[in-house]
Amino acid sequence: MSAHRLQRYQEALEAEAEKFSKLTAEHIKSVNSVGTGLEPITDEEFKQKFQKLHDQVGQWCRKAFRQKELRPFEELDKYVQNVLQHRAQEDCGIKFAQMAEIILWTFFEDIFLAWFPGFPKEVVSHIKGLNDHILCGDRSNNKDRSEFWRAYTASMLFQMDSTTIMLNSCEEDAQIILRLLTTMPTTPLDIDDDSYLAFVDILRNVRRLAAELRCQRSIYEVEQDIHVHQPYDDATMTDVQFSAGLDDDEEVEKRQAVITAVIAKGIVKRPYPGSKEVYAVISKPRVKIAFTNV
User: Fold this and answer.
1) pLDDT for 31
2) CB neighbours (10 Å) of residue 162?
3) How far is CA 279 from CA 125, 140, 289, in A?
């Protein structure tokens, strides 16, 4: 086969692949749509949003905690102690900035777990209670009817002007989180105006992203089954340290990679709450690992 013909085949293949990708995106949007006028979002778009969010959080923490040392464990706030006990192995060698990421992602994951972020607890409690009753009464395949009701309701709430104001009004929460972070280093943590505004922007992005997830059909959940000492799986997890030895077959045979810290839990898409089936992995768990002898 001539080089010219091979190039034409390659270009045709790439064109078909692009066409298939666009059709897939349109299909997902049509499935997710609930007819409220709100533009549905594809899984690929959500993956990109989470990658951008991880980058923003990591960069902010590295800048804020540069050349800072962590206080002795017993001097840390009780909340911080509890989080680190569950998400980081003692003496795991994690950097201070990554410790801060763990604390932030613990807060953020609570936002992603909410039925709808930012709404008063008593309001969400009533809506979620009704949602649970509807879910129990749904006999359709994959709970399609109850998922439509949930996504439709969330989409209508999302489009209220007061919701936009509520999602953006996160300065009080930002100050609470930042006050906690300032107790962690041995020397004062100086958060200047630019750093503060950047953090508020991150928190707004988290709340808006959580709301967008709730407006889609199918449920996007925080993956809870991830913990310290668990074997590392390169296919389903992301090693934040890019540890040496993972690509060395001889070394891998001799040593087992295990999780020493859970920086951020993953986000998965399921057909409905309580389902074990995973439609898509939106964001892999981000972990730090170490090698142990097999």
Assistant:
1) 47
2) 8
3) 27, 18, 27
For residue 293, is pLDDT > 80?
no
Residue reference for tokens 């309580």:
274
* Average pLDDT of every residue of the chain: 86
Task: Answer whether residue 24 shows pLDDT above 70.
Answer: no
Per-residue pLDDT band for 252 (boundaries 50, 70, 90) equals: low
Reported as half-sphere exposure (CB side, CA atoms, 13 A), residue 203 has a value of 24
Pair 40, 21: CB distance under 8 Å: no
Domain locations in the chain as residue ranges: 44-293
CA–CA separation, 3 and 55 (whole Å): 41
In the block, tokens 């928190």 appear at 203
Q: How far is CA 4 from the centre of its chain?
A: 45
Tokens 């040496």 belong to 244
Structure tokens at 255: 């040593």
- What was the pLDDT predicted at 245? 47
